[in-house]
Amino acid sequence: MPAFRQVGEKQLPQEIIFMAWSPKRDLIALANKVGEVLLHRLANFQRVWSLPPSDSTGKEVTTLAWRPDGKILAFGLADTKRVILCDVEKPESLHSFSVAAPITYMHWMEVTEESSVLTSFYHAEDESNLLLPKLPALPKNYSTTAKIFSEEKSDEIMKLMGDIRLNALVLGGNAGFIEIYAYGMYKIATITGGTGSCLALCLSSDLKSLSVVTKVDVSPETEPEITYFQLDTSLLSTYLPEVTRMARKFTHISTLLQYIKLSLTCMCEAWEEILMQMDSRLTKFVQEKNTTTSVQDEFMQLLLWGKASLELQALLMNQLTVKGLKKLGQSMESSYSSIQKLVISHLQSGSEALLYHLSELKGMALWKQKYESLGLDASGIEEAITVVGSFILKANELLQVIDSSMKNFKAFFRWLYVAMLRMSEDHIPPELNKMTQKDITFVADFLTEHFNEAPELYSRKGKYFNVERVGQYLKDEDDDLVSPPNTEGNQWFNFLQNSHHLKESPLLFPYYPQKSLHFVKRQMEGIIDRCLQKPADIIGKSVHQAFCMPLYKASAREDLTSQLFRLPFLWNDKSSSLHYVLFTMRENSNIYILRRHTDISRSASNGLLAVDFGKFLNSSINESSCASGYSCLDAHFYDNDTITVILSEISEQEGKERILAQLPLSSVYTEENAELEFCWNPDQRLDMQCGGIPTHTVTIEGQWRVLENMKAQYVAVNGIRKVSCVLSSNLRHIRVFEMDVEDDGEAEEEEEEEMAQHVGEDQEGLNQSTDNPEDGDHAGSAKPADQAEEQDSSLCS
What we know:
Layout lengths: L4 E7 L4 E6 L5 E6 L4 E5 L4 E6 L9 E6 L5 E6 L4 E6 L5 E6 L4 E8 L5 H8 L3 H5 L24 H6 L5 E7 L4 E5 L3 E6 L5 E7 L5 E8 L8 E8 L1 H5 L1 H31 L6 H12 L6 H11 L4 H11 L1 H45 L1 H4 L6 H46 L13 H14 L4 H7 L29 H8 L1 H4 L13 H26 L1 E10 L6 H6 L3 E5 L4 E7 L6 E7 L9 E6 L5 H4 L8 E10 L2 E8 L8 E7 L6 H4 L20 E3 L6 E3 L5 E7 L4 E6 L4 E6 L5 H15 L4 H9 L7 H13 L6
Parallel strand pairs: 21-25
Antiparallel strand pairs: 1-29, 2-3, 3-4, 4-5, 6-7, 7-8, 8-9, 10-11, 11-12, 12-13, 14-15, 15-16, 16-17, 18-19, 19-20, 20-21, 22-23, 23-24, 24-26, 27-28, 28-29
Helix pairs in contact: 5-9, 5-16, 6-8, 7-12, 8-9, 9-11, 11-12, 11-16
């Protein structure tokens, strides 16, 4: 019986360029050449969902990575230079951000270090949950670009941030680009000084070192060079509790900025273009009328004498119409009410929460012993707090403008509606026909203030009037407000302007009466980004190269596909704090394993071994084979103790057998090899010294399987879920295997032992064991799939 049980096989319509198993579930994410991201379940390789490419997000997927808890999938897009975080439950973008260079590799790790300080922090409840009200969900009837805050009865912010334990998304790109994002959301390190395009990277779980493999193009005439670097990230490790707290705050702030941005987007959608109808109609009236009387005088005559000129009557009865006026009034009231609710419940709540978290961050920055080394700057955070205060002031100003506009328009539309009914000689409802002197004065003041012709406005905006005052606050432009608030007679404003001490006081938030809400929001985002960028720069500069080993020359003729999958492969053994690098060289068929300790000070020796697969299988596979041995096509760490490999016969014949095998590290790092030490010459590339590398010929017994009728080339594995996925060289043919499968004889023996244990039990116990069997004929094979179905019951294709 084959060692591994095949549980699925599929011929896919598009070529697959990336595969990544979920760390917690029987799910595998795929990316194909057309830019589509797919999620499949282990059982029958059933599709759960697919996310098609789009012009807005991007169409060229370059890498995939799962968050350690398996709830978020990240992927990078080269054409738009964006990183997308996608929900595992449904194909929706939860969060996205832009990067400076196209991403070529990403790694998402979780910190496993424990300390008393961290443990107390992990178990302490976040005080913001006690002190701040929960942010209200955004209305579902707006087409916001991201839906992370529109789900009812679920805290999407916490879902996006995941567990309080620190996890980090490490991104590598072209020209030495490396960045680290806490919780996959906010940048905590920008590492500079590197060269080449990143092929693989791995941040150790203790945050002590970062291993990177890059491809450096030395010159156009020579082949690119593959080099391994080990970077010292000990600052992150030394200040792990402080980094965790700071990253948590950064991510809260980043999420709140997105919440405010989406709230403002909803407000812009609530404001309708129909509200501009009055301005455009009045402008057209000015351009077409033949009289010298101003528009304001025309409406004043209608208000005071009840008579309108023929031109005004034509405007009101033919263009605006009674029905149109009624619709305009309803639209204005509905729109203004919606915007008002969004400002009060969403914009102000988000701003106050932002102010709270920035104030806490300022307190952390003032504890210089702990946070100064990480680059937290109290003065920069104070500036961010100030600009958030200005944003809150501008939001309150918008509320006042909405409130006065609703009152003014309600009175104006009511009067104009009655006047138009009189013109058409229609019946006027008695409740509308009563107008007091106070009402007339109110409408007259409204006409005086809003119906003045402004020729300079026509040159700016193409209209003579700005009757509607709310929309200008929601315009995303740098121009000053067309109709800023009237501050004449405001005693507090005049008092501040005349007081030099108070005007410059840090206790008062600055006020920008000439600017829109969008402008102040962009100013706020810019200052907060600059404030939070400094720690990323400081931490990034602290990272330095501790070890460098040029490995080999890469073939300049390799196509893009082979670059997407090929070795080297990096692995972090959390239990023993080791970094492993797997790679092959074209000089021979061996696979090379480089072992480095994550603690730089303990990595004096180079644990480098070559593994030769020899002819350990050919007699069992094909007695007539004339293979001289086996070469490694692909290799990945299955777990800390095992490497999964794809092997191919070294033979001149066509139709070479491909083999899926498990290579235990115990068979490589034996007592005999423990004394072997490779004397590396730093002045030469490794491929020029491969003759001196200790070589161990391995023999694998039982843990292999011939991949019949398949030209296997690549493999993706998940040791936690005990599964592997093999991809053929044409990138379309996939097979899925369960790796740890007991044979039928062992299963039957276990069943007999279990039955023997039940002998002597009472009838009730016997009934229970019959109703709920723990093991059966398919104990070794069906259980993982059943668990997957149970855990992923919410995932339906």
